[in-house]
Every structure is written in C-alpha cells, then in structure tokens.
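<context>
A single protein, sequence plus fold
<entry> Chain with its tokenised backbone below
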Amino acid sequence: MLTQNLPMENDVQSQIRELEHRIQALRSSQIDELQQKLKEARETVIQLEAQIAEITGKAPVAVPVARRKRTSSQEVRGRILKALSAAPEGLSQTEISEISGLNYNTVVLFLKNHPKDFKTTGVLRSKRYFLK
C-alpha cells in the first residue's frame, strides 16, 4: 500500500512546484507592468510640470529620479584635508562644510570621529580646526 501512495505524492509535489513557478511568473509580470506604469506616470508628471511652467513663467520643479549616492569616507577625508590645507589660519566646522561642499553634519561627524588627525583651538562656536 505504501508503494501506491509514492507516485501520487511525487505527482502532487511536481504540481505544487509548477504552481509556485506560475505564481512567480505572474508576480514578475505584474511587477514589470507596474514599473512600466510608474515610468509612464513620471513622464506625464514631467509634461504637466512643463505645461504649468510655460503658463506661469516659472521653471519646472526637478523630480528626483534616482537616490543620491553616498560619499565615501576617503572622499570625505580628502575634501576636508584639501579645505584645511588651503587655510593655514584654521577653519570652523561651518567653513569646512561650505568650502568642501560636504553636508555640515557629515563634517561634524567626521571631525568628531577623527580627533587625532587635527589640531583645534577654542571651544564651541569659536573652535577652529587645523592640519597637524
């Protein structure tokens, strides 16, 4: 009696695998359709914003398409060192941020995490950073 159930179990298992494969294919096609609709919707928004800009005389608002890229720690270090090397009188965190083009919080965090790399004078708002 056990041998009769074995072919039936194999048949059920293969049907389950086939159904799972079909479900995955349907999900994939749905994702593709939704991505295409999203692309079309973004194009429509761009066209509508251009029409609004034409009517109002204002420039259209830029729609971010991709996520911003993360600045590597080596690039952050390089920019901060370049800014400080050009200023022998030292710079504040805000000045470093403006000169290097880095976000203020990025500069603050980098300086906090690398205190041995820089000389400092002053405290709080009057604190200035120098190259060692």
User: Anything to note?
Assistant: The chain is about 65% helix and 5% strand.
